[in-house]
UniProtKB/TrEMBL annotation:
Originating species: Podarcis muralis
InterPro entries linked to this entry: MFS_dom, MFS_sugar_transport-like, MFS_trans_sf, Orgcat_transp/SVOP
ATP-binding among keywords: no
Entry annotated with the keyword Membrane: yes
Region annotation Disordered: where it falls in the sequence: 561-583
Domain Major facilitator superfamily (MFS) profile positions: 103-519
Pfam families in the record: Sugar_tr (PF00083)
Protein name according to UniProt: Solute carrier family 22 member 6-B-like
Amino acid sequence: MTFAQLLDQVGGMGRFQVLNVLLLCFPMVLMAAHNLLQNFTAAVPGHHCRTGINSTCGGSNITEGADCRDPLRAFIPTDGNQVLQKCRRFVTTQWHFLEPNSTELERTEAELEPCLDGWTYDGQVFTSTIVTEWDLVCDFRTLQQMAQSIYMAGVLVGAVAFGGLSDKFGRKALLIWSCLQMAVSGSCAAFAPSFTAYCIFRFLSGMALSGIGLNCVSLSVEWTPMHSRATISMVTGYSYSVGQFILAGVAYAIRDWRWLQLAVSFPYFAFFLYGWWFTESARWYATAGKLDQALKELQKVARINGQKEQGQKLSLEVLKASLQKEAPSAKSNFTAADLVRSPVVRRVTCCLCFVWFSTSFAYYGLAMDLQNFGVSVYLIQVIFGAVDIPAKLIAFIVICYFGRRITQALTLILAGLSIAGNIFVPQDMQILRTVFAVFGKGCLAASFNCVFLYTGELYPTVIRQTGMGFGNTMARVGGIVAPLVRMTGEYSPSLPLLIYGAAPIISGIAACFLPETLNMPLPDTIEDVENQNLEQQKGDEGCKGTPSHQDDIFLDMRMFKDPRPLENTGKGDGAAVDPAKSS
């Protein structure tokens, strides 16, 4: 008996699994809000140098005093479109520039200086942002991108740290800690007295976000029967999409960055409190050698699922006999080196490197550039969230009927082609450019949905969190690099789009070399991964005559195996696939 069969014995996809996934979705909803928060808290309003005329025009609010526009031309130079420059002002007031007969030559010869007295900001859209709080414009504009990169660096460090720690100390403990860390650091960022303090708290929030994402996915996948994993992946993916809608609505209602920061952080105190209810993964207990704890959790799940009698049939002796492969793994210490130690796992790790990096790289290249679409930043945020609904639904159907591999490759290649396609669309065709960008973002969202499920299925239990952490590390590297690529637009406007488009296409090709996991049980040991790959290769060789139905034929072949455990044969997990669960 394998762990998958034990799950079926205690109720399969029962009441416990539904409630468990529902409660895990709530922390994941606000993950999107934190990832994309700086689209609003670090937005750059219209601005120009502060001048003495502001005292007669309503202080720093330049939107109410339309009569200020003409007098301001005596203090601030204009560009070719008669728009006030943002970073320079006249050394002396040029009142004669307001006269109709003033010449362009006079304007260009006037002496200029930086904004020594600060800036005046347009408060019509954003009441307050970190840009207006600490004047992150002109010579200091790179600090805005630095804040986002520091946050992504925190997510990267969290992926490395929490991935290994959760394999060592368990999923539940690290999830509870991550929720508390997010609540505290996110709330402290809202009251940060300086830009430096703000960046420190955002770094800690990024770390916590990785811990929340990794452990929510693991707890949902490891308690879910094989035939329901794709459905659960879609549900958790949609929770992230819902978070994008919530962010747009909350940001529209709360225009002050401090209150907005607090609004998306404070709910994690509630998640921390009910997180103690979560049930630790029995899979993890088994691989850690804590079979008595695994037994208690399985019996608890059976009781919640209305299968109390089936749970009582389980005993420590039955569990030891059934999970004889998981218990010995506790005697070995697994490290990140195990991600590249065996041939199949090494190939999986290399391919997933490309997939994780490119998905995140292109995703944040699009999602963190909302102000450049020429429409309301709130509207484009809603559109970017809305496109996830059909994209992830289509991906779910393809995942269930055609497999993970083709879904992963297809979403990445289509995303790359749509992003690169904007190279050939003129700048004045904003609607068509937005359509291409929205389609690409939808494909990348579907790719994210697939890769979370796919990674959890490809890595065995003993190194699953380490593998997930490594994948998230590559994703965060992509998130850090993405803003830097936008700077290449100074050399060629098409260069960022070319880079953003090429990376997913290359990764889509790399995804074609990953093993298929459709209708395959979750591997628990590294040996399981190697054996499953051998079985899959044998199935592929036996089904060359009908390649379009290879997975179904291979599954049928497995159904007719001896249902008894295969001991000391080295052939897979030693159990047949239940035909009822494989359909």
